[in-house]
Each structure stands twice: as C-alpha cells, then as structure tokens.
Amino acid sequence: MKITIIGAGSWGTALAKLLADNRQEVLLYDRSPGTVEEINNQHSNLTKLANSYLPVTVKATTDLSEALSFSDILVLSVPTKVIRGVLAGIAKLLTSPKLFVNTSKGLEPETYKRVSEVTKEEIPSHLLKGFVALTGPSHAEEVIIGLPTSVCSVSENVEHAKLIQKIFSNTSYFRVYTLTDLAGAELGGALKNIYAIASGMLEGSGYGDNARAALIARALVEMRKLAIAMGAQEETLYGLTGLGDLVVTTSSHHSRNFQAGVKLAQGKNLEETINSIPMVVEGFRTCLAAYEAARELKVETPIIDAVYSVIYQHHGVKAVVKKLMMRSLKDEFVPFNIPKTK
Ligand SMILES: NC(=O)c1ccc[n+]([C@@H]2O[C@H](COP(=O)([O-])OP(=O)(O)OC[C@H]3O[C@@H](n4cnc5c(N)ncnc54)[C@H](O)[C@@H]3O)[C@@H](O)[C@H]2O)c1
Fold first, then answer.
1. Whether the predicted pLDDT of 22 surpasses 70
2. 298 classed as catalytic
3. Stretch 266-293: mean pLDDT, rounded?
4. Is the Cα dihedral 275, 147, 170, 163 positive or negative?
5. CA of 214 to the centre of ligand 1 (A)
6. pLDDT-based confidence at residue 60 (cuts at 50, 70, 90)
7. Residue ranges around ligand 1 (CB below 6 Å)
8. Which domains are seen in the chain, by residue range?
9. Separation of 258 CA from ligand 1 center, angstroms?
10. What is the 3-state secondary structure (H, E, C) of 98-150?
11. Which among 48, 98, 105, 192 is annotated as catalytic?
C-alpha cells in the first residue's frame, strides 16, 4: 500500500523505515528542505535520529499537495502544538477522503482536546474517512534498529483499527494490538509525558529507585482518576497505551520529557530547558491542559500539580517533593466517584 507520513522527525522517520521493511510504499512530508534532501539523496535522517538509515524506496517531499495525493492514508507525526494548524493546511488542499492515523501524544492546553477531537473540527466530515491512533510504549531510537516493540492501533471503527494493525505489524520487531477506546488511549499517551518530566526531576535531584517506583505507582492511580473523568475506560489505563507507555517514558533516558525533568531539577528554567532539547517535549503543554482539566473536573492530582508548580510557578523540586511527602496520611486506594464528562 501507499502511505504518506506528515513530519519527518524522529518518530516519522522510524515509522517510515518500519513501513518500508513491511514492503509498503512511503512518502514522507517535511517542511525542512535539508531533511527532505538528506532522505532523498543520502537515504538517512541522521540529524533527527541516530542510526536512521532508510531503504532507498523511502522518498520525501516538501510539497504538501504531492504528499496528500500520494496516498489515502495520512500518518500524522508532528508535535501536538502544531497539529491544528497542520490539519487546517491539509483541509485546504484535500480533494478526496483520507484515513488519518495520528501518532502525536498530547492535549491542547486551551481546550484540553485530544488530537482525534481536533481532527474532527479541522477536517470536513466528507474528507475524513476515519481516525486511528497508533500509540503505546515506543522509542524511535529502538524501533529504528529493530528492537521488539508493541503498540496499539486504536479506533472506534474496528475495521480501520485492523487495517492499520496489518499495515504496521512486523513479525520481527513491531507487534500491533487493536483497541477501540480512543479516549483512553489518547489520554494515556498524553498524560504519561507529565509523569516522565516528574521522573526526570527525581533523577536530576539525586533521588533513587524507591522514589521512581512510588512515582510510577501513584502516577497510575492519578492518571486513572483523571483519564476516567475525561472519558477513558478504566482497563485501557492498565494496558500498553497507559501503564506500558507510563513505564517506558518514566524509566528511560531516550524520553525528552524525562530529560527535560532532569534539566529542570538541575536549575534550568523552562525556556533554557526547551532550548537545550532540539526535539519536542510534549509534557510541558499537556501539563497546562491536565492541570486546568483536573481543576474543572474536581479531580485531585498532586503529581500533576507538583510538576506544574516547578515548571510554571518556579518552585524548587526538593521543596515540592517535601510537600508531597507531608500530605496527610491515607489509604493507598481511596474510593473516588467521578462524574463522567463524555
Ligand atoms: N520520538 C519518539 O520516539 C516518539 C514515539 C511515539 C510518539 N511520538 C510522538 O510523535 C510526535 C512527534 O515526535 P518526534 O519525536 O518525531 O518529534 P521531532 O521533534 O523529532 O519531529 C517533529 C517533526 O515535525 C515537523 N514540524 C514541526 N512543526 C511543523 C509545522 N508547523 N508544520 C509541519 N511540520 C512541522 C518538524 O519539521 C519535525 O520533522 C510527538 O507528539 C511525540 O510525542 C514520538
């Protein structure tokens, strides 16, 4: 099949290699002429991703119209902060319906909207054949060298989820499960980035494995409450797109969100941290969205509040951790009764 990937960053590049390994025809779109030139002429994208040597069948273009007419399947692999604008640009050029496959992980700060909701707003319904989220614990650095990875193809339309499962699955290194809880998968993939920043903060402060294990366990409890309040099904939070992605991103130096947390703990401010990491750190904006959503939905989120206070209120990490430790003592699992919004 022919597949278009919008965004030749780390993840778009790793997915292009995977699809080419699966004998699919791939066209990458990127706005950077240098990136497109490197892919077409050197068959690599080493400025974006180490070890990214691509099969010669992978082509790239800076021409969005060409990219859109190449295929009926559009894989979105750009930062969430530009997604609304990118989709609006696509909508202006579309002449036939497309299946959108989103791989970006984040929420819109002003609206708390998920990418599927933004897509429905920006792409007219007669041009939107369907929407699938391809999400789960997956570092581009590992996929590009063929290390075993498992993710989910998530859609309310089972046939669309199965189609994307088939196209992306590779028996050597990429296993894809199907799932229908789009809200749960998108929320898990977005919220875990905030906890990755928290985990990096612990690392940068010199705390140990005990603190990280406690963070992961309590983050799951918190993520479950907030995600259910925002429309997720509970079991999704315990799967690949929830717990799986939470574990990989809170435990790995590959995660930019983790790296950002380390830098914040070492005393860099938000601007310095963003400038020192060349690729997108989704957790900063998702933290704003989650902090506001939790307030609106009256869900207690001490970890998200702690990360927010370090990033946006300039509190020190050690003082924030001390405050968390001094919270009133309680049962591990306090029953909660959350009004569902959707
Ligand atoms: N890197 C990973 O391992 C990984 C894995 C799974 C999901 N993701 C998600 O994929 C998304 C992209 O991540 P990434 O790591 O590839 O980021 P990246 O920073 O490496 O690349 C982002 C790409 O988007 C392009 N882009 C930025 N602004 C644009 C605009 N206005 N118009 C068109 N293109 C634009 C850039 O040119 C770049 O090629 C993120 O939401 C991330 O959470 C990443």
1. yes
2. no
3. 93
4. negative
5. 30
6. very high
7. 7-12, 30-32, 48, 77-80, 82, 85-86, 103-106, 138-140, 279-280, 282
8. 2-180 (3.40.50.720), 183-325 (1.10.1040.10)
9. 16
10. EEEEECCCCCCCCCCCCHHHHHHHHCCHHHEEEEEEEECCCCHHHHCCCCCEE
11. 192
